[in-house]
C-alpha cells in the first residue's frame, strides 16, 4: 500500500476502485465526473447521497459503521469523462477540518484491499476538500492525491466544477400586527437536478484555501517553454515526452530591501522519504548529502550582486529510491525578517544546458525568518513535479524547518 503526498500519483491496479474518506466526525462524501475542461456535463454528474449513481460512478453509504465511499468502475466511465474528483465535507454545518484531518483510502472495490492512502496536511479553515482524483492519462487510469481546500463548503466545489446551486428561499419574518402583512409574490423556483440540501451557495464565492493548481487548469508542463509559477501551482518536469531530466540546479536569490543593508540568508534543501520521514538536510554547514546526489554552492553573506545568491545542484538520476520529496527553504540566521528582503525568488535550471525551466517570485512577504520556497515530489512514473510554496515559518535555521516542511509535503 502506498502512502501518498499532495500531488503524487499512482497507476490503478484494479478496474473498479472505491475511495472512502474517514475522519473523527461524520463526513459527506461526493464525486463529480469532469470533462477535459474540468467541468461537469450537467448536474447529473454530481454524485452524492441524494443522487447516488451516475455512469460508472456510485455513492456507497457506510451506514455509520464504515466511511462513505465513491466507487468508480473505470470500464463504465463514458467517453469524454477524463476525471472523477472525490470530495468530502463535515456533516455538521459550518464545521471546519481544523483538528479532524480526514484520510482517504483507495481500495480494490471487488476485494476491499487497500491500494493507497492519503491524509491532506495543514488543514484549518477549510469546510470542504477535493481529496482524491481518479483520472485518465494516455489511456490508463491513475489516482492523484489532491487535498485542495475550500472555505465555502461543498457549494464552492460544486460551483467551481459547473454544478448549479439553488438559492435557498429567504425566510419571511412573522407579522407584528394581528393582520398578516402582505407578502410579495415570488417567481417560480428554477427546476434543477437534486442537490444536497446542506449545500449553501457561496455569496460571494471565496477563493480556495489551498490548491495544487487553479481548478480546471490541468497539469502544467514544460511544453511551451519556461514556466512562471504562482503560489501553490505545480509543474511536471517533462517536455513533450522527452527523457526525464537527469540533473537540475535550484537557484535562489534575494536583495536587501533597504539600500546598503546587507542581509545574510541561507538556502537549504531537506530530503524526505515516502512517509514524510526526514532523511537529511543540505545547507551551508553540510554541502553534500545523499551520496553526492545533492550539492550546495556555499554560503552567501550579503545577498548583493546580480544572479543567484546560492544554488543547489540535484542529480535526479542519483537520488536514492527512498528519497521521494525535496523541500527548498531559505532562512535568516541573523534574525532579519523577510519584509526586509526584496526580489526573493527561486528558479529551476537544466544543469546540462543552463536553460531556465521554472521560476517562482516570492510576493507578499511576512515578518518571519524562514520560508519554504518550493518542493519537488517524485511520482510513481519516475518523473518529478515542482510546486511553488511561499509559506513562511518562524525559524532561523534549517533544523527548525524540518517539521513544518514535512507537514507541507
Automatic annotation (TrEMBL):
Residues 23-161, 227-395 form the TerD domain. PANTHER family: CAMP-BINDING PROTEIN 1-RELATED (PTHR32097). This is TerD family protein. It comes from Streptomyces sp. JL1001.
